[in-house]
C-alpha cells in the first residue's frame, strides 16, 4: 500500500546468535567475512557512498524503504553504540540484549492479542496493524552494520517502530510518520530519523504544516526528551498493560487532541 508507512519507515529475522565462538566470523561464498548471516562487509568509503546514494533515493522517492534502511545502517556508527550502552546499563534493556526477542508474526499470538481488553498494548498494537494494513514481517534484516550486537540493536529499533506509532497514537500517513520520526530522532540520535523529521514535512499541505509546527512537533520533542529509552522496554512482556499506563511509565505525554 502506497499510503502505508510512507516515509522514512525502515522497511521491515530474531538475529540468530552465532553458534561459532565469539568473534569468529562467518565466511561468505564470495570469500568475504560475515559477522552475522546476511552481513555485507563494507569499507568507510563504501559506507559513505551508500549513505549518499540511499539518502538521495529516499528523498526522491519516500516509498523506497530499502534505501531508508541502508541509510540508517550506514550513518548510525555513533548513535547505535550509544543506544547499545543505554540498553546494557538498564536491567530490562540488558535482558533484551541477552535474550534477543523478535517481533514477528511467528512470535506473536495474534488471536490472544486480539482478545485482550481495549486499551491494552497488545490489543491496540494489533488494531494499529490491521487498521493500517501493515505487518511486522516486512522489517528488513540489517546488512551493513559491522558489529553483530549493534546489528541486533538496529533490528530491535525497526521492530518496535510500529509500537511507537501505537504509543504515540499516530497513523502511518505522511503526517503521522513525520511526528514519529521527530520523537525517534530525539530518542535515538539516528541521522536517518533526523533526516526524516527535517525533510518529511516538505510533502505536507499548508494546513498540516501548521498543525505539525504548532501542536505535534513540540509535543513529540518534549515527549522524546522526557521519555526513557524506548529500547529498554520488553514490550513482549507488556501486552496486557494499558497503553496509558505504559506511556506514563516511559514518560510519553498524552497526544494532542488534533486530527492527524
TrEMBL record:
- Subunit structure of this entry? Component of a multi-subunit COQ enzyme complex, composed of at least COQ3, COQ4, COQ5, COQ6, COQ7 and COQ9.
**Composition-biased stretches (Basic and acidic residues):** 1-13
EC assignment: 4.1.1.130
How does this protein lie in the membrane? Peripheral membrane protein
UniProt GO molecular function: 4-hydroxy-3-methoxy-5-polyprenylbenzoate decarboxylase activity; zinc ion binding
* Keywords for the protein's UniProt record, in alphabetical order: Lyase, Membrane, Metal-binding, Mitochondrion, Mitochondrion inner membrane, Ubiquinone biosynthesis, Zinc
Which pathway does the UniProt entry assign to this protein? Cofactor biosynthesis; ubiquinone biosynthesis
What Pfam families does the annotation carry? Coq4
The protein's predominant localisation is mitochondrion
Family per UniProt? Belongs to the COQ4 family.
Protein residues bound to Zn(2+): 161-162, 165, 177
* Organism per entry: Otus sunia
Instruction: Provide the organism lineage as a comma list.
Output: Eukaryota, Metazoa, Chordata, Craniata, Vertebrata
Renumbered residue ranges of the record's region Disordered: 1-28
Q: Which GO terms describe its cellular component?
A: extrinsic component of mitochondrial inner membrane
Its protein name is Ubiquinone biosynthesis protein COQ4 homolog, mitochondrial
Q: Which domain of life is it from?
A: Eukaryota
**What are its cofactors?**
Zn(2+)
The catalytic activity, as recorded, is: a 4-hydroxy-3-methoxy-5-(all-trans-polyprenyl)benzoate + H(+) = a 2-methoxy-6-(all-trans-polyprenyl)phenol + CO2
Location of the protein in the cell:
Mitochondrion inner membrane
Amino acid at each position: 500500500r502506497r499510503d502505508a508507512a510512507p516515509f522514512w519507515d525502515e522497511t521491515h529475522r530474531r538475529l540468530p546468535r552465532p553458534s561459532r565462538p565469539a568473534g569468529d566470523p562467518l565466511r561468505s561464498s564470495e570469500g568475504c567475512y560475515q559477522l552475522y548471516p546476511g552481513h555485507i562487509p563494507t569499507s568507510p568509503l563504501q559506507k559513505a557512498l551508500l549513505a549518499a546514494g540511499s539518502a538521495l533515493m529516499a528523498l526522491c522517492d519516500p516509498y523506497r524503504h530499502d534505501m531508508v534502511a541502508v541509510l540508517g545502517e550506514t550513518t548510525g556508527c555513533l548513535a547505535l553504540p550509544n543506544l547499545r550502552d543505554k540498553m546494557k546499563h538498564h536491567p530490562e534493556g540488558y535482558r533484551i540484549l541477552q535474550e534477543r526477542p523478535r517481533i514477528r508474526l511467528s512470535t506473536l499470538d495474534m488471536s490472544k492479542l486480539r482478545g485482550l481488553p481495549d486499551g491494552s498494548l497488545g490489543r491496540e498494537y494489533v488494531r494499529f496493524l490491521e487498521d493500517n494494513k501493515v505487518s511486522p514481517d516486512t522489517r528488513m534484516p540489517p546488512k551493513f552494520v559491522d558489529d553483530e550486537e549493534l546489528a541486533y540493536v538496529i533490528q530491535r529499533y525497526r521492530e518496535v517502530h510500529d509500537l511507537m506509532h501505537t504509543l504515540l497514537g499516530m497513523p502511518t500517513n505522511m503526517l503521522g510518520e513525520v511526528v514519529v520520526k521527530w520523537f525517534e530522532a530525539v530518542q535515538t540520535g539516528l541521522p536517518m530519523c533526523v533526516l526524516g523529521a527535517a525533510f518529511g514535512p516538505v510533502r505536507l499541505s499548508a494546513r498540516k504544516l501548521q498543525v505539525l509546527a504548532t501542536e505535534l512537533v513540540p509535543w513529540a520533542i518534549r515527549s522524546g526528551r522526557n521519555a526513557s529509552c524506548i529500547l529498554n522496554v520488553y514490550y513482549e512482556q507488556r501486552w496486557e498493560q494499558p497503553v496509558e499506563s505504559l506511556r506514563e511509565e516511559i514518560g510519553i505525554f498524552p497526544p494532542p487532541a488534533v486530527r492527524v
